[in-house]
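Technical appendix A lists one of the benchmark inputs used to test multi-chain prediction within the project. The record comprises two sequence entries:
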Amino acid sequence: MFNKVGNFVMRKSAEFMLKKYADYPSATTAVLLVDVQKALTADQGIDESIRQLVTTCRKHGILIVYSNLDANKKPDLSVPAQSVMRERLNRMADGDANPEFAQPQAGDIILPARTTLSAFAGSRLESILRERGVEHLVIAGPFANIGPDSTGRDGVELGFHITMLTDCTSADSPEELKAAVEVTWPRFAQTVLTLNDFAGKIH
Amino acid sequence: MTYPAEATAIILVCPYNDFLSARGKAWPLVSKVAKDVNLLANLESLLAAGRALGITIAYAPHHRYKPGSFKDRKYKHPSQVLQTLTHSFKAGGFGSRFYPPLKPREADIVASEHDCSSGFTGTDLHAKLQEANVTHVILAGLLSNTCIEATARSAIDLGYHVTLLEDAVAAWSPEDHEAAVKFHYPKISHAFMKTSDLVVQLRLEASHVQ
């Protein structure tokens, strides 16, 4: 009982104090699509929400950045998350390509394919965002507790305002998705909200 | 052999009085999970085994709160917002001292303080581990789904072999702890086990070397 009440108060306090960050000027906001690749989004049920997210960005001129996983290169030591993702990518021909609903266009940024969990690790993502004056980074992509999690954590550490979209992600089970989105994400990300709520705060 | 003694380090993350002492500020909340998993005894037995076997012991300490901490940071980490409210791990105070049974000795590595969660980001931990030729890290301490998990994720991306322990970590709530140890740790570690099993394995491997 004490634990429940104490945690409730702590969560609500943090949420209240971080609420003010959720405001997205289109010039200083970027959307990062992490692992939005054919073989990884297949059967995850997020095609339509990612399509809508991309449309929203195009409408407001918000920068879109893609960070894909490398289907072939292996890190020296893979953790299960890395092996499983690599297997998935190789399950279908062209599985590592971006799907039809998230096709890069001129002006988008495509980072070199990575083997790390985080899109920031070993990449130029931080300096690319800083060069363009991006302060608000919105993260979407399948497998909430793999790529989006590591990337979100690094982004906050590096000083960005990180927003995680609850309905533009997935997990291996509903229970696991709930744990990631409702329990873990709010511990490291300043803002956790739906695509619609995000879209309503862009100006 | 999984754990070459000369290339392995046990990293104790944030083992402060505020988290672990009965008089600590955060203990009333953390104690629920800590007692459930028998955290204090497991941390002490892990550290004792590590010291006995000559394994490198490293410390990844959290930012010690000072007036004005984080004031230059435009977008604070959720933990920084809470630390600003509660003044946990206050510099110079009881809460930011290492919990006595787990305190560092002279030969140990004590990294610089991390501002958010990962023991690696913005600290000298990686450089110090590299200098000591460490390739394998065993993480223990607090909290399961914040500093421990963030440090593990960084360690993986830096190329370390990462071992996580289900009962040498604790979190603010059973839900937080479960999210980490049930769903995340098995996916983001090279080895994941109970503290007692790791201690047996470390001893066994050491005895084979002799």
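Helices of chain A lie at 2-18, 38-41, 47-60, 80-89, 125-131, 147-157, 174-188, 195-200. Chain A has one domain: 2-200. Comparable benchmark entries are summarised in Table A2.
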